[in-house]
Fold each of these.
Amino acid sequence: MSSITKIFSLLILVFIFSCSSYRNHLKNVLNSTNPKIKGVMDNAKQHELQIIYTEIIRDKNGKVSFKDYTYNLNTTNYFYPASTIKLPIAILALEKLNTIDNTSVNTEFSIEGNNEKLKFADEISKVFAVSDNAASTNLFEFIRFDYINQKMTEKGLSPFRMSHRLSGVDPRNPLVKSTTLFKEDQVLIEFSSKLNQEVTALKLSGTHKGVGYLNGEGKVVNESFDFSKRNYYPLQSLHSTLKRIVFPEAFKEEERFKITENDRQFLLYSMQNLPKNAGYDATEYYDGYCKFFMFGDTQENIPPSIKIYNKVGNAYGTMIDCAYIVDAENKVEFMLSATIIANNNGIFNDNVYEYDTVSLPFLAELGRQLYERNKR
């Protein structure tokens, strides 16, 4: 090989590497000197940070493919999924409804022990608009533990495990309540109560966290907090769930959720809908209340051109957001999921976490910088 050829080949490799580095927006953003980013990245291990950023690629025929960039992604490093578990609850409630004749999102139902008639559409709206715990539990009693765990596995969305509700007096009770569906005030079908499978402890790293926790009596127990029998929804499974709702055509038939196109559009509308448009007080439930990326650290209104289809979660010092972010006006389109924990004192269940000073500023700035890099 001549020296000229060698130089030319080297230049090509440098060009390819430079383009690859330039295209890796996530890497560039995480190297930012912005203190909201740098403060977390300097202690990334302590914050158990995991991130997935997805570039949406469309060919000349509009066919979608994905280019994923990740940071510290590991399904065996446990984090508590909090309210993100409500995403598959809402989706699978609609999927189960589709197996029952004469039902729709507007079907009413009731739960054993409560005579109030609920509407599936209303409960799903609450789950996304303000991340309502009671609404998710109402939907859950309809789908149940075994159903959600089985369906997520069937669709290739494992690892995944739901082992407890997010509200109620006995959230871990494996006995689910009976539910009744109505059609024009007449009983359409009743699902009897059912005892679901016993929960086993997860064998993962990070299921025991911290140096202590507050017990039910408000006293600190100087032992790590045990998450091993709690819900498990790693970032890859969460991110892949959202992909299937936004871009079902990119997946095999057996990997898709079996819902109608009208149901899918209803889900998408609910996911991007702001609390004020869902009937909630705009002062208490500001635009960024459930939009951690880009707007989690501000109470300013979200510009109408920006749509964020997402599900957030925060509990026990952990914050998660999983989002598809679109701005048609500025030709922005990407997906982003991240989890971060901020618990400086190492005590769990004390409600002393650095959500406002560490987690929200990081997630918001992460979203903003990726948004700016995607502008075309």
Amino acid sequence: MSGIYIHIPFCKQACHYCDFHFSTSLKKKDEMVLALAKEIEMRKSEFQNEVVETIYFGGGTPSILAIEDLRFLINEVYKNFEVTENPEITVEANPDDLSKERIIELSDNKINRLSIGIQSFFEDDLKMMNRAHNSAEAKECLEFATQYFDNISVDLIYGIPEMSNEKWLQNIETALSFNIPHISSYALTVEPKTALHSFIQKGIIPQPDDEVAQEHFQILVDKLSENDFIHYELSNFGKENYFSKNNSSYWLGKKYIGIGPSAHSYDGEKRSWNVSNNTLYLKSIQENKLPSETEMLSKTDRYNEYVMTGLRTIWGISLDRIQTEFGTTFLDYLNQQAAKYIEDHLLFVDENVLRTTKKGKFLSDGIASDLFMLN
């Protein structure tokens, strides 16, 4: 089983913390939709013996597209690939795009999952992040969305400067009050060349505090586990049967094709990525050329990726798989590197699977980098 990711590189406005690839000019939107469709067709030979299980519209802001555009692109996937009977089809959306009419329109299609970028239910946070929606729109869109969609995920950001633990808890409780079955939550990170980075350098906004972020993370983990959410990946929490199939396929190393500017693809052995420039992407597709670069993954690269994704998820790192896929040298190295973290109660082994403890979860990326094998 495999997935198709479609990157929609447009947004109404730039959020201050975002370093994803997008444009705020919609001048080339129609041209882009045709180019995405053409790339889908150009790449159909890549999934000869694969069945597509997930179609995911990410971005940017896919909810900016007209329903006809989304429908057209979904049909192109069906035309060019074998699609499973009931695929998970997700559209990322912002609250300001989700009027009641728009939600009904989206639900009248094959789309069966919404991922809504709430980030916070508080006005001051939304202004600081330069989000296009306000607090009332955030709540109102969930009010309507839950009437028409059963499978909804919301994004929340923690570790926002000057956000108290009480305020963060209120954010979580507001999301829970709508009976949402999936929550993705990320620490506010300061990426270079973003507006947030510049505001922090100028002293307009304080630097996010790691200790505060760690406290927020623990509040999140505790609150969601009390409410029957399974913490199945570092930033993702789902009720039983509501894990994101799209995201899970990345973490479980399944194959996927990324369509659109800046989208990444993976076929089990090599990774490729499209150019992060709308004009160059359009020009290349119009000339019948794929605008992508490819890298073959070495055994060490594949081991490092498995360690990174394994530690972030409830599936952990299977020591049997390390032995069979990578061999004794890798297994011995992993055991040796993991020993001190096991001693410090940050990692543990259960049924020959290496996992993070509750205390180790927040630190999993740092621990993983210490378990990496250098090329």
